Amino acid sequence: TPIEYSNLYERCWKYEPDERPSIQDVVSTLKTVISKQSEMEGLQNQNPVQSDSIDSLNSSNNFS
User: Fold this and answer.
1) Do residues 26 and 12 lie in contact, with contact meaning Cβ atoms separated by under 8 Å?
2) Domain for residue 7, yes or no?
3) What segments bear the compositional bias annotation Low complexity (predicted)?
4) With a threshold of 0.70, does the pTM exceed it?
5) What domain count does the chain have?
6) What DSSP string runs through the chain?
7) Which residue in 11, 17, 36, 64 has a CA-CA distance of 20 to 30 Å to 2?
């Protein structure tokens, strides 16, 4: 579980209702967390380099 979720849970579980976030704050926090996660996943999925492609390039560029 991302730390942002844990922090949000703790804030929502505060004993004093006045110390809990409003629903608008909860939604805003969740949107931010989801957006960051989606952005990270997108960056990880951008044209990953395959190790066999690198091996192929290395073997084709042997200069003797």
Assistant:
1) yes
2) yes
3) 51-64
4) no
5) 1
6) --HHHHHHHHHHT-SSGGGSPPHHHHHHHHHHHHHHHHHHHHHHTS-PPPHHHHHHHHHHT---
7) 17
